[in-house]
Prior knowledge:
This protein is of the alpha+beta class. Helix content is 18%, strand content 30%. The chain contains 12 helices and 37 strands. The strands form 6 sheets. Strands 1, 7, 8, 9, 10, 12, 13, 15, 16, 20 and 21 form an 11-stranded antiparallel beta sheet that branches. The protein is globular. The two termini are 35 Å apart. The relative contact order is 0.09. Mean pLDDT is 93; it is low at 1-24 and 65-74. The structure holds (2R,3S,4R,5S)-2-(hydroxymethyl)piperidine-3,4,5-triol.
Amino acid sequence: MKYLRHCGLVLLALALAVPAASARKTVIPVETEHTALILSVRENGVLETLHYGNRIADPKAFGGFVTGLSEDNGSGPMAYPTTGGRYLGEPALHVRYADGYHNTELVYAAHQVRRNGDVVTTEITLKDPVTLLEVKLFYEAYQKEDVISTHAEIRNGGRQPVELLNYASGSLYLDADQYHLTHFHGGWADEMQMDGEVLTHDTKVIESRRGTQVTQCNNPSFLVSLNADRLQENVGEVVAGALAWSGNFRLSFEMDESNRLNVLAGISPFASAYKLAAGQTFATPDFLYTFSGRGAGQASRNLHAWARNFGVYGGGQINPTLLNSWEGAYFTFTTETLLRMIDDAASMGLEMFVLDDGWFAKDYPRNGDDAGLGDWEVNTAKIPEGIDFVASYAHDKGLKFGIWIEPEMVNPQSNLAHAHPDWVVQSPGRELYQSRNQWVLDLSNPAVQDFVYGIFDKTMQLAPNIDYIKWDCNRTVADFGSKYLGKDQDRFFVEYAQGIYNVMRRLRTKYPDTIVQCCSSGGGRVDYGALKYFNEIWTSDNTDAFTRAYIQYATNLIYPACVMASHVSAVPNHQTGNVTPLKFRFDMACSGRLGMELQPKNLTERERALADRCIRSYKQYRDLVFTGDVYRLASPYEGDYYALMYVSQDQSRAVVYTYCLKYQNRAVGAHVFRLDGLDPARSYRVTELNVDRSCWWGSGRTHAGDFLMNGGFNPVLLKTFDSAVFYLEAE
Ligand code: DGJ
């Protein structure tokens, strides 16, 4: 489990404080190979942010830099701004004390630095001498990845309980003349749509108050371009960040009167004043960010490298290609249907069969989405032989076997709903709102956590070797409230999200090797909090390859290709009705974790042959998808093409994907894509893959990296939904 590597920290050094020129400030540099966050302690003990950006050779040079006047005048922005004192902006921390007062003024007490391999952790302790509140700020600096992850531990050192009204994970001050914010919103089958704006003074907030993250949510991530009015791929300074939290979140961007931008990321305070008893500590989730001086491309590569090495469960591991039963069979199948799909999957060279929704519940059989959720026993009317029979059949054919669950939810039509009405998220006296005919189970309740853990555990016992679980979650919280929490309703949203993590931690202890997909009616719960436990995401219920260009492009700005499940479905499918050629669908799906989600028996012989070719070649180069560096060549949001490539770390191999999204006037000629990330001094043999009709004159030949990056790589993609994939290998 790579992400846990940094947990066993070795204490290496204490208090690496660098006295600045005047000795008035203690400078605390948090550095990675190419970037630095420079913090300092003023003579009055306030911890300030001096710089975030490129690494600076001598952090001591910062004495007196902030005000530009003298070291005695003014103050820099607080590194963790609190309500009170002279600070009047958006606070990271806002506390209401037992006497009703709101002032918190934190002063530096100590700091220590420790190193564990690639990760250098700086822990800074701040204390309020009046209220005795203590805050520890942790900054984990991932050296090679140029990523910093920060979180706070807030301890009530006083004798009376306090209430945390805002408790952000961190504050990041940026300094530029102009800021362009890119963020992501979505709807069902329309996740991760890029949105952007030049920020003006005051505060822009991106927030979710939906409890469970499903597809209608914003994503807890962003990119800020400095001194620019748009996000650019290869030039300009870009800060990209994400909050590792699967519950309600709040990202705020406040541009103050001196034009500085304070980025705060944390749990949303919405209905969540958090009571902290005397002596109690609250730990916030991680806020991670990276700085790139070379546009969004480098920012993504930094985040992706961090994700593969530390942030994603099983990151960098190659997950199997698969056939999922959902769009091919929906709720209507028998054992025979499943066995024939397994036969087809095996004969096409796929590596796993996943049985989706519809296999369970007897008294209220799951024959549609209106019944059965909560009753996790096999529906023997559909599969009389049991799951083991189907799983063994798949295993005998050389396939892995996976199965779907949606353990956080319950249909009113179920034995569970009748047995445990108190387990449902609800507010007394209100009619319970149904969405997709279901209610949400109250995961703030430890008994429900046990039950949900038990569903996973029980499902894993249905056959000796279940290799993969698809964990679904198909609605947001409404009528929020918990019978279990009684008068402590303010804890609901936080403890719901912590409840999921409690369950995931337990099941990862027992099932470290099971591949678990995070699905939330598609790509809803896509965040680095969930990805600590999940191997991959169901990127979207929208399997239409055209829409996927937009969803996958934007998802991949923040999250690596290794987590993006991407399936080939039939056309027109139930989402968009677009009719794209099978080759286009394969070429799109092959740029993530490839799968299929259709009834293979409906493919023609010619289509089957193409499918076989695409699957075979994908398996030969897919390590590039899972571990390579992404270079985006054309954005679907900006033009008529989408193109990207993945390059091996040693630059010896690459795969290039090119897609035409709109008919091109033939007089214009073929579009030229400039490849990227290659070694200009090496030569690469270029081979077109997934060939239907060869579309580049240079395929099968060797070309200089320099030519491919600066010259004329111009596959003929003229018709809407033309596409081409190329494999490059250095000679
Ligand atoms: C929503 C998921 O996103 C789909 O892939 C499928 O698993 C359905 N739920 C099943 O109900």
